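Renewal narrative, Specific Aim 1. Our central claim is that a sequence can be written position by position from structural information alone. The example that follows is taken directly from our test logs and has not been curated for this report. It begins with the structure tokens describing the chain, in the order in which they were read.
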């Protein structure tokens, strides 16, 4: 057995074990604090609401641990278990005269399809059992499968040309193929950021301009005094699928727009909505979107450079259960095993994201009212059943937002400083 096989097994076992341990820590911590609402929230959140959030967190965590173990087994089946080898052999025998590009596309598409089918039961259980049990699911089976088919069709329409381009560059562009592929993928990503709000998102949801009234007046006033130009403020029919509420920026350049879930607008006052938008504007004004894009581009650059080296190493294929080296197998193997080798970057990324949340909150405290943002956040914690008592270490690994108590304490300080 090749030494890299042992390294691969070791990394999968270690990262899976670490994730299980963190999840169990989270479960114990949340369960231990289930009986009492934290003092700083005692006058805002009832014990019943706090316990619902704890139970929701525990249910998701328990199911997540099962998914984690199944995911590790499936990973081994695809690699050392011969799954990819069988898929590769099957398509080589079916399309002997197709050429590498057509065979590669067939292997990648079929791999993606099988992976999607493997993940389908978990998605159904999460939506129609866990989300349903806690009163969040509004999706019907018809909508669920319609979304799935739309997503699959969109992936084929967009994905096949992109896969063909990357595989062609890997085959034909020489030693620096990875640089050209990185440039192509970067351009594609920017194009998708521009196209998503106008052409892709409407395939799945309905968007309508925010109606005239106090909320729109407040938001337009905030946009004007912060100098933010957008394609408009839109309301999305999030209630068609879930009762969870959210707000976000999307788009690039002139297509960027502000989107509120209709579920969020139903539960927040006009001043709270203004504070939420001020927070989102903080991300834009502090260039968090640009920084995130540059970080993603940089990591993709590094990833392609590593892949270019691994692609030339026969041991990379043989150690992972594939007997015939090829561009498309290198691509699939790299995507499959990367999470096991990048897991410990997670805490750094989460810390970076939490820093951005603090900065956006500070901006919101200057441009609106910190107290209103605090009230809005508490309302969202209640509405979305977000736990108020996460395990600190678990949170450090996974949470892109600061824990509720820390975030609100920081907001209070920012409000006092104004």
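The sequence written for that structure reads:
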């Amino acid at each position: 057995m090749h030494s890299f096989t042992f390294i691969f097994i070791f990394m999968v076992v270690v990262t899976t074990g670490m994730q299980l341990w963190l999840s169990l820590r989270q479960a114990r911590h949340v369960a231990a604090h289930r009986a009492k609402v934290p003092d700083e929230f005692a006058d805002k959140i009832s014990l019943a609401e706090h316990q619902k959030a704890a139970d929701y967190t525990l249910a998701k965590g328990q199911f997540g641990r099962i998914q984690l173990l199944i995911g590790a087994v499936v990973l081994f089946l695809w690699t050392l278990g011969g799954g990819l080898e069988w898929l590769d052999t099957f398509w080589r025998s079916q399309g002997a005269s197709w050429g590498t590009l057509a065979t590669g596309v067939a292997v990648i598409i079929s791999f993606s399809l099988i992976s999607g089918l493997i993940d389908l039961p978990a998605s159904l259980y999460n939506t129609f059992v866990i989300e349903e049990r806690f009163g969040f699911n509004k999706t019907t089976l018809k909508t669920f499968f319609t979304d799935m088919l739309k997503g699959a069709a969109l992936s084929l329409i967009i994905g096949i040309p992109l896969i063909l381009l990357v595989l062609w560059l890997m085959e034909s562009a020489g030693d620096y193929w990875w640089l050209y592929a990185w440039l192509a993928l970067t351009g594609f990503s920017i194009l998708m950021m521009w196209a998503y709000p106008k052409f892709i998102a409407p395939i799945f949801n309905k968007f309508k301009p925010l109606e005239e009234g106090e909320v729109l007046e407040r938001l337009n006033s905030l946009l004007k005094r912060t100098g933010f130009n957008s394609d408009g403020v839109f309301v999305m029919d999030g209630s068609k699928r879930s009762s969870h509420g959210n707000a976000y920026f999307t788009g690039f350049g002139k297509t960027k727009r502000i989107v509120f879930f209709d579920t969020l607008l139903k539960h927040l006052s006009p001043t709270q909505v203004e504070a939420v938008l001020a927070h989102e504007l903080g991300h834009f004004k502090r260039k968090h979107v640009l920084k995130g894009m540059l970080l993603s581009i940089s990591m993709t650059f590094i990833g392609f450079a590593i892949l270019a080296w691994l692609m030339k190493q026969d041991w990379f294929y043989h150690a992972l259960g594939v007997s015939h080296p090829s561009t498309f197998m290198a691509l699939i193997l790299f995507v499959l095993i990367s999470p096991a080798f990048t897991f410990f970057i997670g805490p750094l990324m989460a810390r970076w994201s939490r820093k951005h949340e603090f900065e956006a909150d500070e901006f919101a405290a200057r441009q609106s009212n910190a107290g209103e943002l605090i009230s809005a956040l508490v309302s969202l914690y209640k509405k979305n059943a977000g736990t108020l008592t996460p395990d600190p270490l678990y949170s450090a690994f996974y949470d892109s937002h600061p824990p509720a108590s820390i975030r609100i304490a920081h907001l209070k300080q920012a409000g006092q400083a104004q």
